[in-house]
Amino acid sequence: GIIVLPDNAVPGTLAKDYYHIKNEYVLEVDITPNRADACSHYGVARDLYAYLLQNGYKAELKRPSVGAFATENQDLDINIRVENQEACPHYAGVTVKGVTVRESPAWLQNKLRLIGVRPINNVVDVTNYIVHAFGQPLHCFDASEITGNEVIVKTLPEGTPFVTLDEVERKLSDRDLMICNSKEPMCIAGVFGGLKSGSTEKTTEVFIESAYFHPTWVRKTARRHGLNTDASFRFERGIDPGSVIYCLKLAAMMMKELAGGTISSEIKDVCAAPVPDFIVELTYNKLNSLIGKVIPTETIKSIVLSLEIKILNETSDGLTLAVPPYRVDVQRDVDVIEDILRIYGYNNVEISDTIHSSLTTKSETDKSHKLQNLISEQLVGCGFYEIMNNSLTRASYYDDLESFSPSKLVMLLNPLSNDLNCMRQTLLFGGLESIAYNVNRRNADLKFFEFGNCYYFSQERKTPEKELAAYSEEYHLGMWLTGKKVSGSWAHTDENSSIYELKAYVENIFTRMGLPLQHLVMGNVSNDMYSVALSVNTKGGKCVGTFGIVAKKHLKAFDIDNDVYYAELNWKELMRAIRSAKTGYKELSKFPAVKRDLALLVDKHIQFVEIEQVAYDTEKKLLREVSLFDVYEGKNLEDGKKSYAISLVLQDETQTLTEAVIDKITTKLIKNLEDKLGAKQR
């Protein structure tokens, strides 16, 4: 809108100066998941206070006094009953009667807007202010909706329906802690309010709740219902148990100041037992060893005290410490050492001029890493891009699959979302997500590869003595091709990627690793991941990989229109297969290679790979290459038959091959093809 200023307003005056608005500074702080204690302004200030003291600044840590809190009457007495003290160790409440719900004053609205919180009304804004200022979630119930003037903290039978504030009906678990009145549930404890649990413009009496809910209970309930709120975010990480009563008193005092009314009950406080401090034994030797520097004893004691860690006992060797329960991330001596170093300053620890090291011998792991880097460079040289996808994936990808049964999924106990609720059994779906992402951004010609673990569960291997035996992981290599192999070239017409291109890349990997095709067996495989697929096995029957054309139903799930060609190699089995293999340079043969062509009539279901396998099995010493240069189906052939034209390359490294030797090899090969595949020479 337009603001009309009086005539005496001086042009050019800054608006903030004219309206006497103070400067506000907003600091954005990234909090690591382990620092639940710093999820508030006071929590950050508490850490900053310790740092400032150790760096020579005069600092004082203050918070508003609640010494003036007083109960004015007993006109609205609401009882509290906690039936599950494991899930709710501490629950407290107080009532304020005669409130007027209206807009908050400008100062409170401005403070909330500055931190990205939308002001609602004075009652709700007070609770939002306190949760961000001190990290204690609060809830204001309309006291008139609390039937029987009693709040009961309990669980309800499995499947009980409950409508939350977002007007969604949810089926409760018997492990969901609920805040109830004497008649019905009002709120999912620590997570989300019910449809009638909040205050409205007509509210005149409020019951303010302040509690400490067990983090595990809140976390499981929030995940179970797919809810993530400011309250659950803090409760599931662990709040300060000591702030429950303080924040309750502060909320009641602010409510009285901003909404009017009187504090109309004593604080009802149900506490099973105070949450104990974490007792930690800290030795100076371990601290100095880990940090790499001898820190003066007085400095160590000063730092721990500034972090509100009590010193229970002191000896020449170290300290016995009591860490406050709001520091859920500091429960071991190494955690205390990390905190001391953080405040002392990493930059104050000099780089040591002594290197402590130990010698280790080469292992199979070293060989695996070396070959992994080698193959990565080879694929990058062929135009591939390496991708790295999350090992967590969506269980729905495996619905109705036979090749990767849902019963073998490793499920997460507390998934962050339904999209990441299990561990992957195959690399395929992560790659399809990457392809879909790129295709949606007009990048359709793709070559990807990925190294990563796949995870499996087997109920048959599980025993009471060895529960972890049911879980296993395998290291795999995945390769994806889609789109065009050649596009927009002046020298070549456009050419689509194909299964044969992928097969060549797979064969080149085997060759580079010292595993010639003669040592492998390829054959058709029935796999619902593919529309057409081949398996690659060792002579001993171990599968080292599969490759083929991804089934259309999987591509449809990702809105991918083009064919996708995919190969997945079992890296662990590959490493076993090449355990004794050696690769190296050798001199080119001085003797000429000989080429012979054969035309073979075979059944339509016979694939070239089967002919190739028979050829290599027939002549292991002199046969260098088998290639296919023509396939014919049509006139002049029997029904159900097709013709393959293949080329054989023979070479001896010690002498020139004679016609007699060549004829002997080809005759033997033709006979074996006839016996094993029913092939006939044309």
Automatic annotation (TrEMBL):
Q: Which UniProt keywords apply?
A: Aminoacyl-tRNA synthetase, ATP-binding, Cytoplasm, Ligase, Magnesium, Metal-binding, Nucleotide-binding, Protein biosynthesis, RNA-binding, tRNA-binding
Which family is this protein grouped under?
Belongs to the phenylalanyl-tRNA synthetase beta subunit family. Type 1 subfamily.
Q: Which organism is it from?
A: termite gut metagenome
FDX-ACB domain span: 589-682
Q: Which Pfam families match?
A: B3_4, B5, FDX-ACB, tRNA_synthFbeta
The record's subunit annotation is: Tetramer of two alpha and two beta subunits.
Q: What is its EC number?
A: 6.1.1.20
Q: Which GO terms describe its biological process?
A: phenylalanyl-tRNA aminoacylation
Classification via HAMAP family: Phe_tRNA_synth_beta1
Q: Looking at the keywords, is Secreted present?
A: no
Q: Which reaction does it catalyse?
A: tRNA(Phe) + L-phenylalanine + ATP = L-phenylalanyl-tRNA(Phe) + AMP + diphosphate + H(+)
Concerning InterPro entries, the annotation shows:
aa-tRNA-synth_II/BPL/LPL, B3/B4_tRNA-bd, DNA-bd_dom_put_sf, Fdx_antiC-bd, Fdx_antiC-bd_sf, NA-bd_OB-fold, Phe-tRNA-ligase_IIc_bsu, Phe-tRNA-ligase_IIc_bsu_bact
Q: One Gene Ontology cellular component annotation?
A: phenylalanine-tRNA ligase complex
Residue ranges constituting the B5 domain according to the UniProt record: 275-351
- Report the cofactors: Mg(2+)
Q: Where is the signal peptide?
A: none
> Where is this chain's protein located in or outside the cell?
Cytoplasm
A single GO molecular function term of this UniProt record:
tRNA binding
Q: What is this protein called?
A: phenylalanine--tRNA ligase
